[in-house]
Amino acid sequence: MSSEQQPDALFKLLIIGDSGVGKSCFLLQFTEGDFKEDHNVTIGVEYGAKSVKVDNKLVKLQIWDTAGQESFRAITRSFYRNAHAVILMYDLTREESFESLDDWLREIKQNSDPDVAVYLVGNMLDLADEEREVQTDSARKFSEEHQLDGFTEASAKTSENVTDVSVAT
Ligand code: GTP
Ligand code: MG
């Protein structure tokens, strides 16, 4: 695929969730197949892009990775508009990040287009055996109750389910 090729479609994605759940690592794994152990707190919003082939069409994904820290909320809010899909992320080893999901859904309702698709992702699947705090069934139930468009557990570290999630949108 040549880099100059014009995309047949543009798809805008937003990643939201508490600070430290792995949003930036997820983006890095998806766009570059790389992982970093450090938590470089996102300041405001970072941008990543990747083109994928779907049904022989070139689809360009534009991805905005937002800061989870509360102090950046006013900045990140302005990026919800025009997003086709939101990846709502929690850390399955940290119950608290799952409990924040109600607040994040409220942010989506208040700032997104009404027909935006929302995908729930429980990150840190590689740590599930030893450190899991959020059961898969609880998250699936949450996803169904709120009529979200999809749910999966994934690992930004091992890349398990990272590509699937993003392309499935
Ligand atoms: P903010 O930018 O502050 O909102 O945080 P963030 O959600 O972008 O978190 P970030 O991607 O920076 O990851 C936080 C920490 O979790 C880092 O130390 C990562 O190395 C680690 N991490 C992220 N994803 C995974 C994962 O799937 N497995 C493991 N074991 N560690 C991860
Ligand atoms: Mg980040």
Could you explain how this protein is built, in words?
Helix content is 31%, strand content 27%. The protein is of the alpha/beta class and 169 residues long. A six-stranded mixed sheet has the order 2-3-1-4-5-6, with helices on both faces. It is globular and about 45 Å long. The model has no long low-confidence stretch (mean pLDDT 93). Guanosine-5'-triphosphate (GTP) binds next to helix 1.
Give the ordered list of helices and strands: EHEEHEHHEHHEH
Instruction: Report how far the terminal alpha carbons are from each other.
Output: 21 Å
**Count, helices:** 7
Strand content: 25-35%
- Which small-molecule species are bound to the chains here? guanosine-5'-triphosphate, magnesium ion
The structural class is alpha/beta
- What is the mean predicted local confidence, pLDDT? 93
Numbering strands along the chain, what is their spatial order in the largest sheet? 2-3-1-4-5-6
Low-confidence stretches at least 5 residues in length (pLDDT < 50)? none
The largest pleated sheet is described as: 6 strands, mixed
Rg over CA atoms: 15 Å
Shape: globular
Q: Give the % helix.
A: 25-40%
**What is the tally of beta strands?**
6
List the helices and strands and how they pair.
Blueprint: E1 9-16, H1 23-32, E2 45-54, E3 57-66, H2 73-77, E4 85-91, H3 95-99, H4 101-111, E5 117-123, H5 128-131, H6 136-145, E6 150-153, H7 162-168
Parallel strand pairs: 1-3, 1-4, 4-5, 5-6
Antiparallel strand pairs: 2-3
Bound molecules: guanosine-5'-triphosphate (GTP) and magnesium ion.
